[in-house]
Amino acid sequence: MTSPFHERPFEQRHIGPDADAQAKMLAQVGYSSLDELTSAAVPAAIRSLEALDLPGARSEAEVLAELRALAGRNQVLRPMIGLGYHGTFTPPVILRNVLENPSWYTAYTPYQPEISQGRLEALINFQTVVSDLTGLPTSGASLLDEGTAAAEAVALARRVGKVKGGVFVIDADALPQTIAVIRTRCEPTGVETVVADLSEGIPAEVAERGVFGVLLQYPGASGAVRDLAPVIEQAHGLGAVVAVAADLLALTLIASPGSLGADIAIGTTQRFGVPMGFGGPHAGYMSVRAEYARSLPGRLVGVSVDADGNRAYRLALQTREQHIRREKATSNICTAQVLLAVMASMYAVYHGPDGLKEIALRTHRYAAALAQGLQQGGVEILHDAFFDTVTARVPGRAAEVVDSARLAGVNLRQVDADTVGISCDETTTAADLAGVWTAFGVHAAAGDLEALNSAAGEVLSGSLLRTDDYLTHPVFHGHRSETGMLRYLRRLADKDYALDRGMIPLGSCTMKLNATTEMEAITWPEFADVHPFAPEHQAAGYLTLIHELEDRLAELTGYDKVSLQPNAGSQGELAGLLAVRAYHRANGDTGRDVCLIPSSAHGTNAASAVMAGMRVVVVKTLVDGDVDVEDLTAKIEQHRDRLAVLMVTYPSTHGVFEENIADICAAVHDAGGQVYVDGANLNAMVGLAKPGRFGGDVSHLNLHKTFCIPHGGGGPGVGPVAVRSHLAPYLPNHPLQPSAGPETGVGPISAAPWGSAAILPISWSYVRLMGGEGLKRATQVAVLSANYIAKRLAPYYPVLYTGPAGLVAHECIIDLRPLAKAAGVSVDDVAKRLIDYGFHAPTMSFPVAGTLMIEPTESEDLGEIDRFCEAMIAIRGEIDKVGAGDWPVGDNPLANAPHTAAVLAAGEWEHPYTRQEAVFPGGLNPAEKYWPPVRRIDGAFGDRNLVCSCPPLEDYEG
């Protein structure tokens, strides 16, 4: 009899192959049990034999009940703290159909643009919103948060500016967390920062030192809105590049940074319908002058054409991706915040320019009325011009006022002993204002709101006001009804391929089940609506969940301490390397700056090392994919006195367990260096081996890979950093939440104290649902599935690398180069042909050009794995027909893939293969067919014609 839902082990739902399927797969691979297979695959020297010290697995119902209890320990007060985080109202049509919709949250980064046209269009919309509101022509497709976007602006200014040397000047009215993140990022690379009051311009004593860049906050953290044109003009006179951190909602009312002369605009799109979530995830943004477009960090969506000349979207300038540029990278950014950028773009689409302006005006008038009521009660207001934030002076009473407001259900910001900041947003009510007045001891009333608003007069006027139009494209005018918005979202989702359609076998990216139970809590108000700088006692449930997750990740990896602050894997890398750097400096080893990196490593490794102030020395990789120990030994000896760290990915980037990893770690330690084990491939080790036990000193983990946070079309991610105890004093900390890290830490890596806290319940739930034994079996099945695919495909495609006993780890690389040479078929052809078979392609040409890296994960069942194998085998047959001359090299199903419905419906068919072979290959069921919306996209055209614009008008006619 089947167990009831609440008793059935979640492990059986997460792991795709059941016991019978596992037996069949084991027989194919040649082993009798999972334990026998993993004993053969995982070197004995690193194997962890003791059971994981984790709580036992719980059912889905039990875990949801635990989460409800944790959520109940959080207090949701009205958030009037400000500092870049605001209450917002997520339209339910966007909440349910984007944030809670697996068609959007289980998609991967749009590297295969033909099957990503929906999310690429949404990102074009995002770029248009940012570009229009900031008044700068080119916007990226999102960054990680406002603080790190500001740090990227510093690097961009240094790279493109005319002044070589000099200092970077930060507005004293910038957000405090932004100032701190910039300092963390600048110190290792020797960039000097100066924080100065820029309200009257750049001080003469600063200007005479040379200034290569300036950051201005608009409006300021204090709420002040001032005309930035004079200080921007002064900065340009000094040769400086000017970045403005701007509030997009405010920009619907006040003059754009571009109109004021700014070169760069950065900020966050959080208040465009994305919950605060105790700090994230939120999509940061950057827009730039046209001449800086090709230096923009992160991703940029551009317009190209497909094989029929139809307009199509793709990621432009992909050579900027850090996997390619390595130590020459301009940034270590690898992921973005796509899901959150989509939400923000749809908020703008749904409201349109008039709706956004109405929200901004309401927010502003509430702030004006608030200030008027305080002034009438004798409270001094520090600024005459403001948008949503009022700064009040109450000598000696600030703490008393903040405490009193808290009792009334409102969180305010205590700036210092004499000053209180109050921020309004679209969720602010008249009752909130009344509570604030009462806290200040002012006897205004909510019923007086209209009179106070009238008495406040024009707070913003003259040169401060915006006069130009924005969001004029029809997409921002055509979806006002919920029906229209719902259908628009559905049309875009239907163009895309995500895990809700089928397998995404991407090597190194671990696209596995993002269970609904794990996702459910992130939209609960007790998690979604907590301000990151709320008093810690209001976030007791969050902090318990965070500390439990940190402890469990430490147990799983063999490390002693974990920080969850980094909000991407690349940020985790940087945090780990900064910890290593700080450790050496604390020991007096200031000359240790060499970072050894195998040539096969993830490209972000080298980029992160450069950002941490280190010199990259590349170590050779052998033909079998292993680190060249002879070359490593020589490099260690050559740089012995300057060796800081070895960065090594394990299992290797080539998908194998290297048997000598413990010896490699020991050799580095003997030379005084540290070992960084890149955690990208941790899905092959959980429950089987612990990097902190076999020689690692530090690792970053990818919660959006191994621990089930969904990729969201290219983000959000979480990249915790895990360290041994000697590095723990140097983990990230935060100036606004002291408990977020050690006092001796390196500073904040991200803007929020605990990074993307809102999505941590996903990984906490996964670990809780699976328990130690379940997590171990998930790893074992991931290894089994990869080896099963390798065995099935080996007769048709060479498997490039294997480890002990001829086995791979959790992924395998198949070599298409001999076939390309013999038949003239490229790896691109195979990737695009897989679309016709109903699959997202595996990872192309990484780490070896001309190959496919396949990772099935533990969540795909045997039926889907076999369907993929059969598709690959059928494609090999098609390649052979090209090689035999049955089909011409330039006109065959691979060269012309993918095939659209329009191709099938074409009146004339002049190809040497049939329409059936084109669109229903290998017996594909027509009823289950995924139809790509465009044919193959011309990448070179897109890079030559870099366009950042919305879909054309004709797309919306009628």
TrEMBL record:
- Enzyme Commission number, as recorded: 1.4.4.2
Tell me the Pfam families matching this sequence. GcvP2_C (PF21478), GDC-P (PF02347)
UniProtKB keywords: Oxidoreductase, Pyridoxal phosphate
On the tree of life, the source organism's domain of life is: Bacteria
Group of enzyme by EC: oxidoreductase
Q: Which CDD domains match?
A: GDC-P
Instruction: Report the residue ranges that make up the Glycine cleavage system P-protein N-terminal domain in this protein.
Output: 12-440, 479-732
Please give the residue positions where the record annotates the modification N6-(pyridoxal phosphate)lysine. Answer: K705
What cofactor is this protein dependent on?
pyridoxal 5'-phosphate
Give the stretches traversing the membrane: none
Catalysis: reaction(s): N(6)-[(R)-lipoyl]-L-lysyl-[glycine-cleavage complex H protein] + glycine + H(+) = N(6)-[(R)-S(8)-aminomethyldihydrolipoyl]-L-lysyl-[glycine-cleavage complex H protein] + CO2
The entry assigns this protein to a family as follows:
Belongs to the GcvP family.
Query: What is the role of this chain?
Result: The glycine cleavage system catalyzes the degradation of glycine. The P protein binds the alpha-amino group of glycine through its pyridoxal phosphate cofactor; CO(2) is released and the remaining methylamine moiety is then transferred to the lipoamide cofactor of the H protein.
Self-association state and partner proteins as the record states:
The glycine cleavage system is composed of four proteins: P, T, L and H.
Protein name as annotated: Glycine dehydrogenase (decarboxylating)
Organism, as annotated: Streptacidiphilus jeojiensis
What are the leading ranks of the lineage? Bacteria, Bacillati, Actinomycetota, Actinomycetes, Kitasatosporales
In the UniProt record, the gene name given for this protein reads gcvP
